[in-house]
Amino acid sequence: MDRLIEAIEKGYSSGRSWAPGGELCELAAKGSRSKNEPVLRFHMYAPYDVNYPGSAEGERRFSLGEEAVANIRSAGIYFECVSPRLDGSKSRPARIYGGLGNAHYRGDAREDLMDNLRVVHAASLALADKLECEGSAGLPEELGPGLRELPPVGRPAEIDS
User: What does the H/E/C string look like for the chain?
Assistant: First the structure.
């Protein structure tokens, strides 16, 4: 967690609109180093990453943080953090993305997708707490059944030339 916080603080202080972060943890079995094992990653995202019209197949959007997305093998939460640890964040909040990749396939029912989202939510909430984000970065303590699903973002119309 300390390395991740340091990477986010460094990325934020660079002034760029996005910055690499790092892995919070690998969720691999002991001794396993497969690239197909689940992993939690965090980074700073650019403003245009939220509500991006090119969603993955089967991906659903939710009203959590700035936006949350989930599908059968991954989930992610985009949230903003105002923190005394991030100088200038009152006027320019840090935009942080937490993502779970290579999750175990459980099915495509909403509850299965929510399980993936719960993993990212717990890690994002812990990060927001360690970063001292005001109001837990807008993340609730728990994900309830009332989490609102958002419609897909439409792709802009292509212009014929």
Answer: CHHHHHHHHHHHHCCCCCEEEEEEEECCCCCCCCCCCCEEEEEECCHHHCCCCCCCCCCEEECCCCEEEECCCCEEEEEEECCCCCCCCCCCCEEEEEEEECCCCCCCCHHHHHHHHHHHHHHHHHHHHHCCCHHHHHCCCCCCCCCCEECCCCCCCCCCC
